[in-house]
Amino acid sequence: MDWAALFLSFKLSFWTTVLLYLISFPIAYWLSFGKKSHWQMIVDTLVSLPLVLPPTVLGFYLLILLGNSGPLGNIYTKVFGKSLVFSFEGLLVASIIYSLPFMVQNLVGSFSLVDSKLIEASLCCGENKLATFLKVILPLSVQGILRGTVLSFAHTLGEFGIVLMVGGDLPGKTRTLSIALYDQVEGLDYESANKTALVLLFFSFLVLFIVYSTADSRWTNKTKSFI
């Protein structure tokens, strides 16, 4: 087992999920409750693009964007004096973009299910939009938030193509668990590869179990009763 790769994978998944919260909630709120316009369709399409793009294609464009000559990579290099690609920070940016649809789509789906009468009642009672969001929309969207969290975390944990394109294979720096598995198979170390694969398999099962549990009507009823 490559423990450094395991730690790096969980670290990358954790920070990706945390930063996705900050980015996804405003986007999902605007897509769900904002004034309808063509911009919403354009943004929704851009957010969902990683779902259909081959990871290598997305990784190639991210490599151009984050490279030393790219617009974002050039600014980062001038400010911090180091390259964004082949670094943990570069992996983080790539992972956020790649996992963005898993968080945003689950949030939008949950927000859209909130009864508009409850939102109107909250506003009529004098609550502002932020208070209405925190007291009404957020508690009623727990399932979508949970699904978005576990799917984003798991998706980041199992990334391979984009991680390899943007981060390369640097031990202790950018080598994640999926790349370690590839290296172990390539080196004919099947015993270690089996252990690594079992970790990813177990975590994938756990994620699907949580997602399906949140969709189960019995669990849903319990959650509503609790709320």
Supply database-style keywords.
227 residues, mainly alpha, 80% helix, disordered C terminus
User: Strand percentage, roughly?
Assistant: under 5%
Mean pLDDT: 85
Overall body shape = globular
Assign a percent range to the helix content: over 70%
Please count the beta strands (DSSP E, at least 2 residues each).
Answer: 0
Radius of gyration computed on alpha carbons? 20 Å
Element-level helix/strand string: HHHHHHHHHHHH
Helix count, DSSP H or I runs of 4 or more residues: 12
Largest sheet: none
Structural class label:
mainly alpha
User: How far apart, in Å, are the first and last alpha carbons?
Assistant: 42 Å
- The stretches of 5 or more residues where confidence is low (pLDDT under 50) are 222-227
Report on this structure.
This protein is an all-alpha fold and 227 residues long. The protein is 80% helix and 0% strand. The chain contains 12 helices and no strands. Helix 6 crosses helix 7. The longest helix has 31 residues, at 3-33. Mean pLDDT is 85; it is low at 222-227.
How do the strands and helices of this protein lay out in sequence?
Elements: H1 3-33, H2 38-52, H3 55-66, H4 71-80, H5 88-113, H6 116-124, H7 129-137, H8 142-157, H9 161-167, H10 177-186, H11 190-215, H12 217-226
